[in-house]
Here is the input.
Amino acid sequence: MAPRANWKGFLRLSLVTCPVALYPATSESEKVSFNQLNRKTGHRIKYAKVDADTGEEVDNEDIVKGYKVDTDTFIEVTKEELENVALESTRTIEIDEFVDRSEIDPRYLIRAYYLRPDGKVGHDAFAVIRETIREMNKVAIGRVVLTNREHIIALEPLDKGLMGTLLRYPYEVRSADEYFDDIQDVKVTKDMLDLAKHIVNQKAGHFEPDKFEDQYETALIELINQKRAGKPITAKARPRGENVVDLMDALRKSIGRDAAGPTGAPKKTAKKPRKAAAGQKEMLMPITGKKAAKEAAAKKPAARPQRKSA
Here is the structure.
């Protein structure tokens, strides 16, 4: 089932307007997630909202937002008062300007969304705005209110729709000076640079996301399956970094190692069928993770309709 829209409103370029919907472009719901348990009972931990002074649980309808002025002083702000902060970007993404993509500092990028026409009307206006941005090879900058906050949003064409990327405000981006000031000014020799460039050329490729595997996710699934099967868990040796004593020697050895090709992963041997534990009443099927289950469901062919007998 398609995800629900995070926001619905209008996209406007001067006097050209169309209804649109904003959807999250990424998801982490397929990752392995854990619940917190009571070690003594095995029961799940439940969080309750309690009054900090009385210790009594508070109902949701009695909870309001408050801005802390000092230690014991808060200014209460109600939901209705927040809704009355009338910003046009609450319901409309107004395109304010167009910029070159290269001018947007990557530090300002937050997360990506898909923007598409909402309903059957407005597709013509949406197409005009989309193709104008595409032909001009620009990024449209506007504003949108999400989760009670106004965000800057950068819009650019993506296939038949638009991709919107939320941007940070300048006050949200830390200056790099306090982190980089202590880095020593080192003179890199031409020989070192040439060797390093050779390593880069050996490793040159194209960005293909499908070839990347979340190794930590895979290790988590393996861990869960081993514990589920009652197998002993043994700690694996952690990879250790080594201090480089001779940089030129390390660069030369790197070239030799990379020229030989990546070390091949050991072939996986067929696993023996697991024996059921004594008293086990059901087969313990290994988990595959939410991502694998989602992909398998997408590949599963639809069931053919059965023909009714006359």
